[in-house]
């Protein structure tokens, strides 16, 4: 529903509620080119104070070993050179690059750490150190080293390419994209590798059309066979991701619950008092069924249906069993803002909900929403949603229609939120504010509402997930209440917590808790409610059911 309600578990019969689905596709990680060949050694190091015949002899042996690709011998001689002259720049460069090219980045890192103190102001050595760290999966240290190399020499060839690759490995695609927008390259091939990194960053940001265009341009005019194969593979990955995305997707969940106040009906607490406090155990069955009507690089059109049913085991509580139906049609567009080229997701949505209580018609709602989410950077995302809803309470009885107690209403809500996440995206924090205006056919239910919210979520290494959300909803009703003769004000606090753990393949274990406390000037509208649930969720139609970001359809 459009507003916060007394039942956070089932308050929204359409689970996506005008929200913005994640636009980001499976990650693409670029492969680094072998950009730096093994150069011949200078016969005499500039750092040597005087000719050294023994050193000259070892240098000659090292060069000969490199030319015949005898890597073991070359490593031996290069280490001997550095033992005699720790400031021999060429020997350090060649040995470090040779270890890297032989898939021994840990040894390259150890070597460069041993001698890097002699070359702390050498941009190229510092960059080679950063690349070795990157290939050794020491991403944060690699980023620091590459940034240091760029500070030493802002025009250093290829440093921007490696920095972009490091940011991609750190799952920071916006930083990667920014890094590769500029910078010099050592060759035309290196320049194309940098273009591939740019396209990869765009793909991770959901900009698949722009990414595919760059991949095609590189593939059409490659500087090497390796570049052509990489561009072709990335194009294939994008197209495969599009073609293999199931058109029909969603989830079904079955929960057992304890509800200590089953008489609180979704949305009605904004208007009417709960009939009674009835604690009971019970069950909940809900689904979120979605179908892609259109699925392209930048635009998606999805139709969805979300049924819901609760059943309480206690006789008194069973009179508040709910049956809900919700259908929606939404269109989303992914692109870059015309200012500052920030990735955005825009959505428009229309929906219709119906809620029956114990098979008797109770409430129906129809409306629509527009939403916009903009990534400010890799850490911060700002979102805004404007939602319009029309509430029609069914079976009000004679004398209610058109009276001050007529709860049929038109609601408008404008919401804004800001989300932060850590570099590794495992911890997310959110704060938000919403203004809600309700105009009812009965004067008793016109109000201005203000909603402040915050939340935390955390992805664990075992792919489980935990979240906590807190909301404060203040409502000031415009008119004196007809029956009580007082001006009504409500303050509502809603707390929700959930834990989701993968069980087997597409199945998750769900644990949830919801608390609702409403304090009203009308004593009959003052109540609290606790709902505890445990159950199973089945996810279907997903590319990778083990990817945490693709598992949570009903949260």
Q: How would you sum up the global shape? A: elongated
> Helicity range of the residues?
25-40%
Radius of gyration: 31 Å
Give the oligomer, counting copies of the same chain as homo and different chains as hetero: single chain
Number of strands: 15
Parts with pLDDT < 50 across at least 5 consecutive residues: 1-40, 42-48, 543-555
Distinct helical segment count: 12
Characterise the protein shown here.
With 555 residues, this protein is an alpha+beta fold. 27% of the residues lie in helices and 36% in strands. It has helices at 53-67, 71-84, 89-101, 105-115, 123-135, 139-152, 159-169, 173-179, 188-204, 208-220, 225-244, 315-318; strands at residues 248-259, 280-295, 299-305, 308-312, 322-336, 343-357, 360-375, 380-393, 409-421, 427-440, 447-459, 465-480, 487-504, 507-520, 527-540. The model is unreliable at 1-40, 42-48 and 543-555 (pLDDT under 50).
Q: How are the elements arranged and paired?
A:
Blueprint: H1 53-67, H2 71-84, H3 89-101, H4 105-115, H5 123-135, H6 139-152, H7 159-169, H8 173-179, H9 188-204, H10 208-220, H11 225-244, E1 248-259, E2 280-295, E3 299-305, E4 308-312, H12 315-318, E5 322-336, E6 343-357, E7 360-375, E8 380-393, E9 409-421, E10 427-440, E11 447-459, E12 465-480, E13 487-504, E14 507-520, E15 527-540
Antiparallel strand pairs: 1-2, 1-15, 2-3, 2-4, 3-5, 4-5, 5-6, 6-7, 7-8, 8-9, 9-10, 10-11, 11-12, 12-13, 13-14, 14-15
Key descriptive features of the protein:
single chain, 555 residues, alpha+beta, 15-stranded antiparallel β-sheet, 15 strands, 27% helix, elongated, disordered C terminus
